[in-house]
Amino acid sequence: MKAWVRASFLPILVALFAGSAALSGEGSPPPPQPGSDLSQTQPAEPEGELVFEPAPEPAIPNEYVMGIGYLGGFRDAWGTEKLFDPINARLFLALQDGADRKDLARVGVPDLDLALQDLIAGRMVRESSSGLRPAFPLIREAARETFGAAVQSAAKGAYVSLRPSLKKIRKAAEKEKVVPWLYTLLWSEMLESRAAEASLAETGALKAQRLRDEGYLWILIPGDPYSTGVDRYSSGSETLHYLWTATSYLNPVVEEFSTRREILDRALSQRPWEKEGTAEALTELGVLDAQKRVRVPVLRKDSKLLAELRQASRRYAKKVLDLLDPDAAARLLGASRDEAIAAEFSAVGFRFMEKAVQDGFLKRPAYLFQADSSEEGLVEALVITENEQNDPLERAYYLYDREDFEGAIGQADQALKLRPGDPETLFRKGISYMKLRKYAEALRNFEQAASRPARTEDVWRGWTLVRIGNVLDMMGRREEALKRYEEALKYADVGGSRDAARAWLENTYHD
Predict the structure, then answer these.
(1) Which of 321, 352, 354 minimizes the C-alpha distance to 162?
(2) Which helix (H) or strand (E) holds 388?
(3) What pTM does this model have?
(4) Residue-wise over 215-234: b if at least 16 C-beta within 10 A, else e?
(5) What are the CA-CA distances from residue 349 to residues 72, 162, 193, 213 (Å)?
(6) Which residue of 20, 179, 180, 372 could cross-link 30, Cys pair, CB 3.0 to 4.6 Å?
(7) 129 exposed, middle or buried (CB, 10 Å; 0-12, 13-18, 19+)?
(8) 382, 241 Cβ separation under 8 angstroms
(9) Residue 211 in 3-state DSSP?
(10) H/E segment holding residue 275
(11) For residue 303, what is the DSSP state?
C-alpha cells in the first residue's frame, strides 16, 4: 500500500485484502464503509531511519496469487498473506487435494499444529471429519477446462439475453456523456453490483450472513486477464467506485481512504482540491483537472443510465443462475454449493465483459498508473453513483472518517433500529465512543456486541474482544483486559486481530 512499484503478484493481494482499513484500526473494517486509523493497532514503532525492503517472493506459485477472485464486502476476512510464509505455503500445497494430519506430518514443518492453526484462523484451510482442505475452491488442472466451458456457455447465454438492455445502456451513456466510464459502471452497477449480490442471497444461492461478513473467495489458475473487482467508499448516500483488475497496479494515493473521501466530497461539491500533499499526484493521474477540480463523473438517482444498469443487474443475476449447474461445479471443485456458485458467477462476468469489449460495446479502460494513458482514460477506474437509498451504517463510517464521532454514534443508533444488536454497528458505535474517551459507553457497546453467541470464524468477535481489552486497560482493569486478549486469540484472525491481541498481552494499551 505504501510503495509505487510492486511485484506483479502483489496488486490483487493488496486490493483484496489490504486495500481497506482492517479491523485492526480504529477505523475498522471495510463493510460497508472503511475508515483508516492504524495509530492504535500496535505499540508504537521505535523511532529511527525507515528501511524500505523489497516485497517478499511468494512461497506459492504466482498463478495462485494472480488468480484470486472475490465476491462480497469484507475482503479482510481472508488472510491470504499467510500464504507468503514458506512454511504455511508448503502445508497449503500439500493439502490442495485433501490430506490428514498424518499425511502432513511428512511435510516436515517445525510445528505442524501451530502452522495449521495459523492457516485455519486466516480462512486459508478448513478442517472437517474427512480431513484438511483449502477453505475455498481451487480451479486447477483437469477442473479448469470443464469449469471454463460451463462459464463460457453461461456467459454466452446471459450476453444474448441482456443484449437489448446493453443497447439501452449504451444509448443512455452516450446521452449522458459518460461512455469512457461505461466499463466501470457496467461492472460496478450491473455485474458485481450490490443488487446482483442481494439477488444471489435472496434466492439462497449464497448465504446472506456470510456474504455480508466474509464474502466468498476462490482461486482461478491461471489468473484470468479479465478478472475484475471493485472497491467502494460510501457517504451513506453516494458511493465512489474504484475498479481494478489483476493487470493494474493499484495506486497508493488513491488507495488511501482519506483521499477517497476527499475525492467523493470534492466531486459532489465541485470545490477545488486543497490538500497540497496529494494534489500534484492526483493531477498527474488525471483525477484532478488544471483547476484542481475532481474529474470523476457523478450519476444521480434520476440518471436514466443508472436506472437501466440497476434494472438489468437483477435480471442478469437471475439469468446466470438459471444457466449454471452449481451442483456439478461443487462436485468438480470439491467445494460447497454456494462457494461453487460464487466462483462461477463472477467468472461469468469476466467472460461477459470480454464479449462486450470484443463487440465494441465497451472500451477496456486504461488505469491510473499508466503514464502514457490518454487523458480520458486516466479516470475510467473511478466513478460516483448516488445510492438507491440512504444507509445509516455507511453514514456512520463516513462521519467517523470525518472525525464527527457524535454524528457517527447518531447514525449507528439509526442503524440499530433497523438491525437491533448488530455486532458491526455496535462495534462502530463503541469505537466512536473510544475516540471521545467515553470509555464506559464504549465498553457497554462492545460488551453488548460480544454477548451474542458466535462461531470461532466470526469476523467481529476477535476485534470486539481486543477493543474490550483496550477499554479495560484505559480504565485501569489490567487483569480483566488480559483475559479478553487471551479470549480474542480463540477467534478468527481478521485484519491482524491476533497480532494485536498478542501485542497488548505484552504491552498495556494507552490512548
Answers:
(1) 352
(2) none
(3) 0.85
(4) bbbbbbbebbebbbbbbbbb
(5) 14, 12, 11, 22
(6) 20
(7) exposed
(8) yes
(9) helix
(10) none
(11) -
